[in-house]
Amino acid sequence: MREVVKIFKALSDPNRLRIIKMLQIRPLCVCEITEVLQLATSTVSKHLSILRDSDLILDEKDGKWVNYYLNHPAADPHVSKLLPLLEKWLPDDAIIRQDAEKVKSVDRNAICGV
Amino acid sequence: MREVVKIFKALSDPNRLRIIKMLQIRPLCVCEITEVLQLATSTVSKHLSILRDSDLILDEKDGKWVNYYLNHPAADPHVSKLLPLLEKWLPDDAIIRQDAEKVKSVDRNAICGV
DNA sequence: CTTTCATTTCGTTGATTAGCGAAATATATT
DNA sequence: AATATATTTCGCTAATCAACGAAATGAAAG
Description:
2 copies of one chain form a homodimer.
Chain A: H1 2-10, H2 14-23, E1 28-29, H3 30-37, H4 41-53, E2 57-62, E3 65-70, H5 77-88, H6 94-105, H7 108-111
Antiparallel strand pairs in A: 1-3, 2-3
Helix pairs in contact in A: 3-4
Chain A binds a DNA duplex through α4.
């Protein structure tokens, strides 16, 4: 039960939901997510840590960056059911739409210097 | 988005999850849930209020008692997807199983005096 | 009408959590 | 090897939340 509670807890913060919706579009690094959410880098890192510890996302080193992406298909049976649901949810939410637009153009090379 | 966050928040407490699982068996009143969970009545009432405000459950006056039951089928599209999922989850969890046994025999007439 | 009773609401407390800046870390770059 | 960089971790603060007992509420029972 602790695992299920953990997953729901991870999903019960608006910014973490936004991150999930952003990662549905493409994998992103911390600085890109930071740019879109307009939070401190440390805050974003903490949120990502919570999502990773709930098995909702995975990370992968990519040169200077760490890419985060959805854990789909997931080994965890609960995550494997929730992520497809979340894919269909909130398509018309204004904030989610704005984030999506930004995700299309946000560029780690521009943010972090050439 | 606020609504989705609200639902996940409602589901992110172990006792509230237990309540949901109990209500999958049959409708229950506050004193019956209180008996099973071994919490203060005020705490149970508060939990039920959170679940009702998230559209996960409904209430109905029944003589001296207020019955609470799952909001299924739900008008809310998110709840209508999550409740069937939760029906299948945690079938082997020890605490959930113990609660289920107690739900079978808990009796409001015995708890609240004849 | 009065008393009883199940539930809800309120106020308090200690625990948890989201946000931030600073410090530390792990590498990539020079 | 030294420097730069993206990220993570740490420490702190203010806000939020679960638990409880007390008080209030809305009927049901007598």
